[in-house]
Write a structure and sequence with these properties.
By secondary structure, the protein is an alpha+beta fold. The chain is built from four helices and seven strands. The longest helix has 39 residues.
């Protein structure tokens, strides 16, 4: 049986570990709350911008924040240079987003024409026909971000469409030998050309972030409770 002389006065190392764990868990909870607030602000901004009339291309390019803006311009698809964005899921099915550059008076804009189902075999990419004449495009502007965790495997090739793992505008510019404007048009679902378009501006809703925040704070509280219970048991053992 342990006695007073065998037990240190206070478990400093355990206290330190618990303190570090609680700080980390609370920080994660606060981060999730901040993410939820950011998502709420953006969703409000999207709803506000939806109520505005479509902007001309030059007006969008002049905005500091080019995301989620209604836009309308005239252009011509470069139908001989299509791209397929891999691993896009819709209604539980795997497919691609079809990306095609469109030439305009102000430069080349990458247009996301929507989702298309992948074929039975991964080595056979889907084929499609697109109109090559000049037309009016309208939809919502988006600004892609490059995920550092995604390793791009696309290489220069004469075989089109080219498969992409992420939307990297600088990389795509090298494929088409033309500079792309710093945005992507997500084609409106009502536009007569293209494929399935069910755009989601915010992948994770604010409610999810709040739920994660509650989980992190609950874990922090659980750590403190377990620590207090362990201290009480230790005190009882010392007093025996």
């Amino acid at each position: 049986m342990a006695n007073k002389s065998n037990l240190p006065k206070h478990p400093y190392f355990a206290t330190f570990l618990v303190l570090v764990a609680v700080i980390i868990l609370c920080s994660l909870g606060v981060w999730q709350l901040q993410r939820a607030q950011q998502k709420e602000v953006r969703l409000q901004q999207i709803e506000l911008r939806k109520s505005n009339n479509p902007l001309a291309l030059e007006d969008v390019l002049g905005q500091q924040d080019k995301r989620d803006l209604p836009i309308r311009f005239t252009g011509k698809l470069m139908v001989n240079k299509p791209f397929l964005l891999d691993n896009r899921i819709e209604n539980g099915q795997v497919g691609f987003h079809v990306l095609v550059p469109a030439s305009t008076d102000l430069g080349v804009v990458l247009v996301n024409l929507g989702w298309i189902k992948s074929g039975q075999y991964r080595d056979k990419l889907p084929k499609f026909d697109l109109p090559a004449y000049s037309q009016v495009f309208y939809g919502t502007s988006a600004v892609p971000t490059v995920n550092p965790m995604v390793t791009e495997t696309a290489a220069m090739s004469d075989n089109w469409p080219i498969l992409l793992q992420s939307i990297d505008l600088s990389l795509i510019s090298t494929f088409i030998d033309a500079d792309l404007l710093p945005m992507v048009l997500q084609l409106d679902p009502e536009h007569p050309i293209g494929f399935s378009r069910n755009w989601v501006a915010v992948v994770m809703a604010p409610e999810k972030h709040y739920a994660y925040a509650v989980q992190w704070f609950a874990l922090a509280i659980a750590c403190v409770i377990i620590y207090i219970v362990a201290l009480r048991k230790r005190k009882i053992r010392k007093d025996v």
